[in-house]
Structure formats: C-alpha cells, structure tokens
TrEMBL record:
This is RidA family protein. InterPro entries: Endoribo_LPSP/chorism_mut-like, RutC-like_sf. Residues 7-146 form the Endoribonuclease L-PSP/chorismate mutase-like domain. PANTHER family: ENDORIBONUCLEASE L-PSP_CHORISMATE MUTASE-LIKE DOMAIN-CONTAINING PROTEIN, ENDORIBONUCLEASE-RELATED. Pfam families: YjgF_endoribonc.
Length: 152
C-alpha cells in the first residue's frame, strides 16, 4: 500500500468511488504538473450533508460536511493521478459554504477540509485558501470544496 494510502487507513478513511459530474463539466483537469479538481459536495456514505449554516446546520456539522467534501476531492485526485503519493503539494482549496446572510463563521467551517489535508499530507497539505458564504449550493449541499494540486 502507498504511504498516503496507509495514512488514510490510519485515519479510518476509505475513499469513495468518485461522483460523476451532474452538469457540463469534467471532475478534474490536469495540465502539466497542475491538477484542478472541480467542486465536490458534502455527499458521504450516509447520504448528502445538506442545509444552511447559520440555519439548520451547526458549525460542527458544517466542519464534518467540509471534511466529507475534502474526502471526495481526494477521491478525484486519486482518479486523476492513480496514487495519492503522486501529490507534491495541495496548493489551494476553495470552499463554498451554504449559509444564511448573517453567518460569519464560514472559515471555521472550512477548517474541516483544511485540517483533513494536513492530517493526510502533513506539510504538503498546507495550502492557500478562499472561503465564501453562498446563498445556495447544488442539491442543497452544506459545503462544496474545490482544489488546485501540484502532482508528480
């Protein structure tokens, strides 16, 4: 098993089969050593983590949703490069948080995704980041995460 595969096993994470796009886009694009992963929603083994932060979703549940969306990002990276050991660096994450207009803790929610990348990749998982609160996400997902990754 790969180094990162072993790390995922230690964390109790099994990567899902990547979800096919639901519109006119591809799940990832690789150009040279750069991989761009399209936004992945908070769809987990128990279904969709849905709803609005600041409304019916707590910060803690939002962090779990962000973590799940990041796990889905990892599944797409693996599909693109075959082995997560080929990740040189997680360069950037973009987070979209489905929230009420008065919710100002979106960065706390996005930490669920950021923390996962550091848990999995160590220093290679430290990244730049943008987090944006939005009025709605596809299928009412609580969180969507996209990534820019340097790969070998």
């Amino acid at each position: 098993m790969s180094i990162i595969g072993n790390r995922l096993a230690e964390l109790g994470i099994t990567l899902p089969t990547p979800v096919a796009p639901i519109a006119n886009y591809v799940p990832f694009v690789r150009t040279g050593n750069t991989l761009v992963v399209s936004g992945q929603i908070s769809l987990g083994p128990n279904g969709l983590m849905a709803g609005k932060l600041g409304g019916d979703v707590s910060i803690e549940d939002g962090q779990k949703a962000a973590r799940q969306a990041a796990i889905n990002v990892l599944a797409q990276i693996q599909a693109a490069v075959g082995n997560l050991d080929n990740v040189v660096r997680i360069v950037r994450l973009g987070g979209f948080i489905n929230c009420t207009p008065d919710f100002f803790d979106a960065p706390k929610v996005m930490n669920g995704a950021s923390d996962l990348m550091v848990e999995v990749f160590g220093d290679k998982g430290r990244h730049a980041r943008s987090t944006v609160g939005v009025a709605a996400l596809p299928v009412n997902a609580a969180v969507e995460v996209e990534a820019l990754v340097e790969v070998a």
